[in-house]
Amino acid sequence: MTSIRDATTDDLRTIIQLLADDQLGKAREILPDDAVPAGYLAAFEAITRDPNNRLIVMEDEGRVVGCCQLTFIPGLSYRGSTRGQIEGVRIAESHRNKGLGCELIAYAINACRAKGCRFVQLTSNAVRTDARRFYECLGFVASHVGMKLDLG
């Protein structure tokens, strides 16, 4: 049986492992040996302090097997509407294709509704064709062209 809740610092190591267990994450994440690297801790603290951010984990039989971050973005367009941004969605490889991704996204969408969001949006890297297909099956539409500038 699965459950979904806000993440705690005890979940951070597993979340980082989920982010790294991905074709793109392997190159950009640092798997912690013992201590969680300071950058991850600082980001976690900033997320949990901000009322417009939530870091969510999904558990299966007490083990974290999924995660995502929700950000609520107030805006002026659409008469001052708030948007829900879903990022960093991951399901452990051992638990994929079991409906858990659908369950996690449904939870995120309902959290956005509860916060009064007009839209829910997300980005997915263009090389993640399976992920894009998954989001399209859930009703997400590629209505905009996303662009990024790497400042690193």
Tell me what you see in this structure.
The chain has 152 residues and is α+β, with helices and mostly antiparallel strands. The protein has a domain at 2-8 and 51-137: Gcn5-related N-acetyltransferase (GNAT) (Aminopeptidase, 3-Layer(aba) Sandwich). The chain contains six helices and five strands, in the order βαααββαβαβα. The chain has helices spanning 12-20, 25-28, 38-49, 77-80, 100-114, 129-137, and strands spanning 2-6, 53-60, 63-74, 82-91, 117-122. Strand 2 (53-60) and strand 3 (63-74) form a beta hairpin. It starts with a strand and ends in a 15-residue tail after the last helix.
Which value, in Å, is the CA radius of gyration? 15 Å
Overall average residue pLDDT? 94
CATH class bucket of one domain: Alpha Beta
Strand order of the largest sheet: 1-2-3-4-5
Largest sheet: 5 strands, mixed
Number of strands: 5
What general form does the structure show? Answer: globular
DSSP summary: helix tally = 6
